[in-house]
Design a protein that fits this description.
about 10% strand, about 70% helix, three-stranded antiparallel β-sheet, about 140 residues, Arc Repressor Mutant, subunit A, mainly alpha, 3 strands
Length: about 140
Amino acid sequence: MAPDDDFELTDFTPYLLNAAAEAQSQEFSRVYRDRYGMLRTEWRVLFHLGRYGEMSAREISRRASIHKTKVSRAVSALEAKRFLQRRPSEEDRRVELLALRPPGRAAFDDLSRAAAAHEAELEARLGTQRLGELRLLLRELAM
């Protein structure tokens, strides 16, 4: 069977989605990397703790769809930066609960403002209606 001569990878929807996601992620990563020396997974762990409060690494892994090994590395890095603390769960001593410390809360607040500014720039570039439509389409594809 001959390949489809009309197929163009750069027009392939999964390719375009990945390229767009990577471009936006790289753009915002400069903020958390330059300000706090964070990697992407560290930002995502910090975000979940800042947004949802105390939780286990397993719960972060599940909510954020990040492999547990990567979450574990990010937790260790954030702990070394004194952004989070661990404590044993009262219900299950095998589980550690993670929470932001004041420096982690300050970093979360700062990066949340930066993320909102990044989103506002994207809205200015695309327009409110088109950005809203894009969000709806992306949510539909993610389900």
